[in-house]
Design a protein that fits this description.
Four copies of one chain form a homotetramer. By secondary structure, chain A is an all-alpha fold. Chain A contains four helices and no strands. In chain A, α1 (5-18) crosses α3 and α2 (28-46) runs antiparallel to α3.
Amino acid sequence: MTNEWPARVQQELQRFAEERDWPRYHTPRNLLLALVGEVGELAELYQWDPEEPPPADRVAEEIADVMIYLLRFADVTGIDVERAVADKIAYNATRFPKADR
Amino acid sequence: MTNEWPARVQQELQRFAEERDWPRYHTPRNLLLALVGEVGELAELYQWDPEEPPPADRVAEEIADVMIYLLRFADVTGIDVERAVADKIAYNATRFPKADR
Amino acid sequence: MTNEWPARVQQELQRFAEERDWPRYHTPRNLLLALVGEVGELAELYQWDPEEPPPADRVAEEIADVMIYLLRFADVTGIDVERAVADKIAYNATRFPKADR
Amino acid sequence: MTNEWPARVQQELQRFAEERDWPRYHTPRNLLLALVGEVGELAELYQWDPEEPPPADRVAEEIADVMIYLLRFADVTGIDVERAVADKIAYNATRFPKADR
């Protein structure tokens, strides 16, 4: 476990949950459904007008909600987010060659 | 076009949209994002307690919202829902053999 | 229970599930996660190019998958889809007045 | 802009996109639909059996995909992820009092 941002936020979220007796609700499937709900709220901000960006504070709040549930989901499922992202970017580099210049 | 339920509801939804000058907003991607938003609301009803079914009237309303956007999406993309469903069930029957008895 | 399209398809899907010993897997939350998965596949068809409609047969198949899980979800949760949709359209008519002409 | 993990990954993702001529495809709505697609893939891993955790490498890959699109989405919409998350956690602390001990 590093001291990088994802791990620090996960520790903060875990303490936040424990202080509210929430860990029993934080199963993978519960957190996954909560994540789906927050992605839905983000989608609602963008649904009608492709030309009109929604208010930045609303977008920030929904991005935060999705991020919070994603980090919490990774924590309870035991996935190392930093490593998973680094591995996926490395894998994508092998799948998608750079464009010719 | 049959006179079955999906086509009848789609006609009603089209008239509803036209009476409110909404068809210009009812592009495939807009309706798809709206559908995602409604699926998110349905997920929120089920997110915390696997043992406690949410209130039936709330579930009914969210199912209706998802259905309305799905039918409207199929209408503007020109997909025949009845035929698509029948084709998919027939295809699934070839993919998944019946269990032994 | 009417003999309309949603009820007829739900009966067909129930028989299909029973013939494969699937009803034990068809809990509300399982079907909801399956629905989210199919909505994700529909979104993938539309994700990169707003100007280029995806192939109609792919769209039809994903709409069918979403519809199948939505009807099955409504069936196992005991929601009358026809009534829920009719009620929601009636309610929406009170929320959104017709445009001036 | 800090030198924390989200900003560093966002810079890496931006360079990755530029090297492949992808930035023209990375509009907020395109990235949002891609995010929905990846959340759908994550949901598929969990859809049938609440008791059987899916393979860790599959979960890690889908978490990474969701994270990558979420960070990229925040980058192109100009949202500071670190600040948005900190603000939301602080706001949640005011909404949800700690449990009595």
